[in-house]
Design brief:
With 168 residues, this protein is α+β, with helices and mostly antiparallel strands. Helix content is 24%, strand content 27%.
Length: 168
Protein backbone atom coordinates (compact mmCIF):
# COMPACT_ATOMS: atom_id res chain seq x y z
CA UNK A 1 0.00 0.00 0.00
CA UNK A 2 1.34 3.44 -0.98
CA UNK A 3 0.62 6.36 1.31
CA UNK A 4 0.82 9.94 0.06
CA UNK A 5 1.68 12.49 2.70
CA UNK A 6 -0.58 15.51 2.43
CA UNK A 7 1.12 18.76 3.36
CA UNK A 8 -0.92 21.65 4.65
CA UNK A 9 -0.28 25.34 3.94
CA UNK A 10 0.60 25.85 7.63
CA UNK A 11 3.31 23.19 7.38
CA UNK A 12 4.79 24.88 4.32
CA UNK A 13 4.74 28.22 6.13
CA UNK A 14 6.51 26.66 9.13
CA UNK A 15 9.39 25.61 6.82
CA UNK A 16 10.32 29.26 6.52
CA UNK A 17 10.77 31.63 3.62
CA UNK A 18 13.87 29.78 2.41
CA UNK A 19 11.92 26.59 1.69
CA UNK A 20 12.21 26.03 -2.08
CA UNK A 21 8.67 24.67 -2.51
CA UNK A 22 5.21 25.35 -3.78
CA UNK A 23 2.26 23.20 -2.78
CA UNK A 24 -0.11 21.76 -5.38
CA UNK A 25 -3.09 19.91 -3.92
CA UNK A 26 -1.09 18.82 -0.88
CA UNK A 27 2.03 17.80 -2.84
CA UNK A 28 5.29 19.65 -2.25
CA UNK A 29 6.84 20.74 -5.54
CA UNK A 30 10.51 21.79 -5.45
CA UNK A 31 11.14 25.13 -7.15
CA UNK A 32 14.58 25.73 -8.65
CA UNK A 33 16.23 29.11 -9.15
CA UNK A 34 15.43 30.62 -12.55
CA UNK A 35 17.93 30.96 -15.35
CA UNK A 36 19.41 34.44 -15.67
CA UNK A 37 17.79 35.19 -19.05
CA UNK A 38 14.40 34.27 -17.63
CA UNK A 39 15.09 36.47 -14.62
CA UNK A 40 16.00 39.46 -16.82
CA UNK A 41 12.71 39.01 -18.70
CA UNK A 42 10.83 38.72 -15.41
CA UNK A 43 12.45 41.92 -14.13
CA UNK A 44 11.37 43.82 -17.24
CA UNK A 45 7.78 42.58 -16.99
CA UNK A 46 7.61 43.34 -13.29
CA UNK A 47 9.02 46.84 -13.82
CA UNK A 48 6.55 47.73 -16.57
CA UNK A 49 3.58 46.40 -14.60
CA UNK A 50 4.73 48.08 -11.38
CA UNK A 51 4.97 51.52 -12.99
CA UNK A 52 1.59 51.12 -14.71
CA UNK A 53 -0.18 49.90 -11.57
CA UNK A 54 1.41 52.47 -9.30
CA UNK A 55 0.50 55.29 -11.70
CA UNK A 56 -3.10 54.11 -12.04
CA UNK A 57 -3.58 52.79 -8.47
CA UNK A 58 -5.34 49.66 -9.66
CA UNK A 59 -4.16 47.15 -7.07
CA UNK A 60 -1.12 45.36 -5.73
CA UNK A 61 1.66 43.45 -7.45
CA UNK A 62 3.43 40.45 -5.94
CA UNK A 63 6.64 38.82 -7.12
CA UNK A 64 7.95 35.28 -6.81
CA UNK A 65 8.23 34.91 -3.05
CA UNK A 66 4.65 36.05 -2.36
CA UNK A 67 2.51 32.99 -1.66
CA UNK A 68 -1.16 32.61 -2.59
CA UNK A 69 -3.39 30.00 -0.94
CA UNK A 70 -5.60 29.03 -3.87
CA UNK A 71 -7.23 25.79 -2.72
CA UNK A 72 -7.84 24.04 0.57
CA UNK A 73 -8.32 20.42 1.55
CA UNK A 74 -5.92 19.57 0.01
CA UNK A 75 -4.06 22.86 0.13
CA UNK A 76 -2.49 24.60 -2.84
CA UNK A 77 0.01 27.42 -2.32
CA UNK A 78 1.85 28.92 -5.27
CA UNK A 79 4.18 31.86 -5.70
CA UNK A 80 3.72 33.03 -9.29
CA UNK A 81 6.59 34.95 -10.86
CA UNK A 82 4.28 37.98 -10.92
CA UNK A 83 0.71 38.25 -9.63
CA UNK A 84 -1.64 41.22 -9.75
CA UNK A 85 -4.62 41.57 -7.41
CA UNK A 86 -7.11 44.35 -8.12
CA UNK A 87 -8.02 46.67 -5.26
CA UNK A 88 -11.58 45.33 -5.10
CA UNK A 89 -10.27 41.78 -4.49
CA UNK A 90 -7.78 42.67 -1.78
CA UNK A 91 -8.78 42.02 1.82
CA UNK A 92 -9.10 45.09 4.04
CA UNK A 93 -6.25 43.75 6.16
CA UNK A 94 -3.38 41.89 4.55
CA UNK A 95 -2.05 39.25 6.95
CA UNK A 96 1.40 40.17 8.32
CA UNK A 97 2.46 36.51 8.02
CA UNK A 98 1.18 33.75 5.84
CA UNK A 99 -0.37 33.53 2.42
CA UNK A 100 -2.97 35.64 0.70
CA UNK A 101 -6.14 33.58 0.20
CA UNK A 102 -7.16 35.45 -2.97
CA UNK A 103 -7.14 34.41 -6.60
CA UNK A 104 -4.95 36.85 -8.54
CA UNK A 105 -6.53 38.75 -11.43
CA UNK A 106 -3.39 38.35 -13.56
CA UNK A 107 -0.59 35.82 -13.24
CA UNK A 108 2.67 35.96 -15.17
CA UNK A 109 4.86 32.87 -15.29
CA UNK A 110 8.26 33.13 -17.00
CA UNK A 111 9.43 29.72 -18.14
CA UNK A 112 13.03 28.95 -17.22
CA UNK A 113 15.18 26.10 -18.56
CA UNK A 114 15.13 24.69 -15.00
CA UNK A 115 11.31 24.40 -14.97
CA UNK A 116 10.02 20.84 -15.17
CA UNK A 117 7.32 20.21 -17.78
CA UNK A 118 5.26 18.26 -15.23
CA UNK A 119 5.14 21.24 -12.87
CA UNK A 120 4.23 23.61 -15.72
CA UNK A 121 1.33 21.30 -16.67
CA UNK A 122 0.20 21.15 -13.02
CA UNK A 123 0.20 24.93 -12.73
CA UNK A 124 -1.64 25.37 -16.03
CA UNK A 125 -4.30 22.93 -14.86
CA UNK A 126 -4.54 24.75 -11.52
CA UNK A 127 -4.90 28.19 -13.10
CA UNK A 128 -7.56 26.81 -15.46
CA UNK A 129 -9.40 25.08 -12.58
CA UNK A 130 -9.60 28.22 -10.45
CA UNK A 131 -10.32 30.41 -13.50
CA UNK A 132 -7.56 33.00 -13.21
CA UNK A 133 -8.85 35.79 -15.49
CA UNK A 134 -5.56 36.13 -17.41
CA UNK A 135 -2.35 34.10 -17.33
CA UNK A 136 0.67 35.08 -19.39
CA UNK A 137 3.17 32.25 -19.95
CA UNK A 138 6.38 33.88 -21.15
CA UNK A 139 8.98 31.71 -22.90
CA UNK A 140 12.27 33.64 -23.20
CA UNK A 141 13.96 30.84 -25.19
CA UNK A 142 11.32 30.88 -27.93
CA UNK A 143 10.62 34.60 -27.46
CA UNK A 144 6.90 33.97 -27.27
CA UNK A 145 4.07 34.56 -24.84
CA UNK A 146 0.94 32.43 -24.49
CA UNK A 147 -2.13 34.23 -23.21
CA UNK A 148 -4.63 32.06 -21.33
CA UNK A 149 -8.12 33.47 -20.71
CA UNK A 150 -10.91 31.18 -19.42
CA UNK A 151 -13.31 30.13 -22.17
CA UNK A 152 -11.06 31.36 -24.98
CA UNK A 153 -8.50 29.74 -27.20
CA UNK A 154 -4.91 30.20 -26.09
CA UNK A 155 -3.32 33.02 -28.04
CA UNK A 156 0.43 32.94 -28.72
CA UNK A 157 2.34 36.03 -29.72
CA UNK A 158 5.96 36.54 -30.69
CA UNK A 159 8.39 39.17 -29.45
CA UNK A 160 6.71 41.82 -31.64
CA UNK A 161 3.27 41.14 -30.18
CA UNK A 162 1.52 43.14 -27.49
CA UNK A 163 0.53 41.81 -24.08
CA UNK A 164 -2.70 43.33 -22.89
CA UNK A 165 -4.56 43.05 -19.62
CA UNK A 166 -8.01 43.62 -21.08
CA UNK A 167 -10.44 44.76 -18.39
CA UNK A 168 -8.17 43.37 -15.64
Amino acid sequence: MVTTQITMAAELLAMGSDAPYELIQGELIRVSPAGIKSNFVLSNIHGELFVFLRTNRLGRLSVAEGGFLLETDPDTVVAPDVAFVANEHLPEVVPPRGYLAVRPDLIVEVISPTDERREIRMKRALYDRIAVPIVWWIDPQRETASIHIPGQEVKTIDRNGRLEGRDV
